[in-house]
Design a protein that fits this description.
It catalyses: L-cysteinyl-[protein] + hexadecanoyl-CoA = S-hexadecanoyl-L-cysteinyl-[protein] + CoA. By secondary structure, the protein is mainly alpha-helical. Helices cover 58% and strands 5% of the residues.
């Protein structure tokens, strides 16, 4: 019973943390909490350890490196190794359909293809050569993207919907965010690959969770475990309930149940992020625009902090032109002619 309680606490904590970060990221409170935590940290931890941690965090999250790509591949390889070693063989013995068992491998191949494309594709780097062409792609809204603005780092005119990435040290056309898992920015030219990669990654985790659950349920039905009885702490016979059944399966197949719990949590987190990414694509927004935009529903939100004399400016998304046109812009992006042959690195 203890491991079930801990697992449920872990799941609830992870989901609440993700929701709170998404809500607080629109306000200044998250920044204040981080600064407060950093001050407490500086009072407790020795200076030498603080410097080492800062250097490590700067290397991981503020420089281009292959750490998270390697970690991603290691985690994916570990999960598929466990699936092949533990579940695939058992399911074959129980005469599961081979199509269902091979579906995660098909999704893995597609996922790795689009993962590679996301990593290697130029996201839409703005240079002196294509600067004027990109300036004509999107209309300036004069709120988030003022006309005639210049990048202080690149010394280039900033096209609408562009942003300078401090990690890659270049301006990106239709900048969404910098993804450490692919070691690349997500921009106009690789957003389509990123969405398909995210979709197949979520589908592969969900498929593994479904196959693992079907195996355990089939095992319970075949062995008639749900009809068994057990002796409780007081010595009284009790009929098998769902909690005791899950605990029994965990003790009998610990690696399979642990794998099931991992891919379930991963499916929920990836599924939530996928829904958010599809919402942005359907409304023709980027993560950067969503984060910076002062939306109308936030004007009445009590957690939003503003100077008392400031007049609220409601950001209006002028780039959304209907679902199909928005999706077409994602999957068939406008590419300056001079850059078409240099799109792939």
């Amino acid at each position: 019973m203890d491991f079930l309680v801990l697992f449920l606490f872990y799941l609830v904590f992870m989901l609440i943390s993700v929701v709170m970060i998404c809500i607080c990221s629109k306000t200044h409170r998250l920044k204040g909490l981080v600064q407060g935590g950093a001050q407490i940290w500086s009072c407790i931890i020795p200076e030498c350890i603080q410097r080492a941690v800062r250097k490590l965090l700067h290397y991981l999250f503020h420089t281009r490196n292959y750490t998270f790509i390697i970690l991603h591949l290691v985690l994916q390889g570990t999960v598929y190794t466990e699936y092949t070693w533990e579940i695939f063989g058992y399911c074959q013995e129980l005469e599961f359909s081979l199509y269902y068992l091979l579906l995660p491998y098909l999704l893995l191949i597609i996922c790795l293809i689009f993962f590679t494309l996301t990593c290697l594709t130029n996201p839409g780097t703005i240079t002196k050569a294509n600067e004027l062409l990109f300036l004509q792609v999107y209309e300036f809204d004069e709120v988030m993207f003022p006309k005639n603005a210049r990048c202080s780092t690149c010394d280039l005119k900033k096209p609408a919907r562009s942003k300078h990435c401090s990690v890659c040290n270049w301006c990106v056309h239709r900048f969404d965010h910098h993804c450490v898992w692919v070691n690349n920015c997500i921009g106009a030219w690789n957003t389509r690959y990123f969405l398909i990669y995210l979709l197949t990654l979520t589908a592969s985790a969900a498929t593994m969770a479904i196959v693992s659950t079907m195996f355990l349920v089939h095992l319970v039905i075949v062995s008639d475990l749900y009809q068994e009885t057990y002796i409780d702490d007081l010595g009284h016979p009790q009929s098998m309930d769902i909690v005791f059944l899950i605990q029994y399966l965990f003790l009998t197949f610990p690696r399979i149940v642990f794998l099931l719990g991992f891919v379930m949590v991963l499916s929920l987190l990836l599924g939530g992020y996928l829904c958010f990414a599809l919402y942005l694509a359907a409304t023709n927004q980027t993560t950067n625009e969503w984060y910076k935009g002062d939306w109308a529903w936030c004007q009445l939100c009590p957690v939003v902090v503003r100077p008392p004399s400031a007049e609220p400016q409601v950001y209006e998304n002028i780039h959304s032109h209907g679902l199909w046109r928005n999706l077409r812009e994602i999957f068939l992006p406008t590419i300056p002619y001079s850059e078409r042959k240099k799109k792939e690195w």
